[in-house]
């Protein structure tokens, strides 16, 4: 994999420019992990290897990240920043679909220098449910900002559904992108367009279901509130009885 033009400092390869600028430790660690992941299996990479590659001590590594996996979270935030920094208002008048397509394609563009590393990482973590659950939370945080950049709300009754749907859709598109060697990314763009359109149809159906079930939800909420009021009255009655009982209402207190 071609090195990022930014260097990590102390342990740079012979191909780096002699006057390159040293990265901040957090970014240096991310870049080091991605270089190592491009060259060897994920499970063979130790935190000591990353620290040496980044030119930082283990103490500095620990100050920045608690684990190797946490560095992937740092990578996601680095990509988030690149995408958000590159945002413009050129597409403000375009349909929502076009705005989201643009944001997610810019995210893939930002990820492109790390494609060999990501290919190995995705393969290694595919069968690890705990890691996938942790990465899903990282992806939720990232996509919240991607949707905001596209002018799409993630609040309201269906906000979480919308957000998780984009995470799943982007994961599917990423699988295609990792195997797409065409510089024009025709397969990737087709997959992204398809996923966005499927997501639109799903959200339309979800909104219809939400409207249809609104009366039932209101009735259930009313019944639940009535039950809570009755329970509060019952607790108040119990407290009144306890006040006249020297044992505090608990028979075992006499023992």
TrEMBL record:
It comes from the Bacteria. Residues 1-24, 223-255 are annotated as: Disordered. Gene3D superfamilies: Tetracycline Repressor, domain 2. This is TetR/AcrR family transcriptional regulator. The lineage of its organism: Bacteria, Pseudomonadati, Pseudomonadota, Alphaproteobacteria, Hyphomicrobiales.
């Amino acid at each position: 994999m071609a090195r990022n033009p930014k260097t990590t400092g102390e342990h740079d390869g012979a191909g780096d420019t002699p006057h390159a600028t040293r990265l901040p430790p957090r970014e240096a660690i991310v870049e080091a992990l991605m270089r190592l992941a491009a060259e060897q299996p994920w499970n063979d990479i130790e935190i000591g290897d990353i620290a040496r590659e980044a030119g930082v001590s283990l103490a500095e590594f620990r100050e920045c990240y608690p684990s190797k996996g946490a560095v992937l979270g740092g990578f996601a935030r680095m990509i988030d920043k690149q995408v958000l920094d590159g945002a413009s208002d050129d597409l403000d008048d375009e349909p929502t679909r076009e705005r989201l397509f643009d944001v997610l394609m810019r995210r893939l563009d930002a990820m492109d220098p790390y494609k060999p590393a990501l290919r190995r990482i995705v393969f290694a973590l595919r069968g690890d449910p705990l890691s996938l659950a942790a990465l899903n939370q990282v992806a939720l945080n990232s996509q919240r900002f991607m949707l905001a950049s596209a002018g799409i709300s993630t609040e309201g009754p269906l906000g979480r559904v919308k957000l998780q749907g984009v995470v799943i859709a982007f994961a599917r598109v990423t699988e295609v992108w990792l195997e797409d060697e065409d510089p024009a990314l025709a397969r990737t763009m087709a997959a992204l367009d398809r996923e966005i359109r499927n997501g639109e149809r799903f959200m339309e159906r979800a909104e219809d279901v939400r409207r249809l079930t609104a009366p039932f939800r209101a009735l259930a909420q009313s019944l639940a509130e009535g039950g809570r009021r009755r329970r509060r009255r019952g607790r108040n009655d119990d407290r009144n009885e306890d006040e006249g009982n020297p044992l505090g209402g608990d028979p075992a207190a006499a023992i």
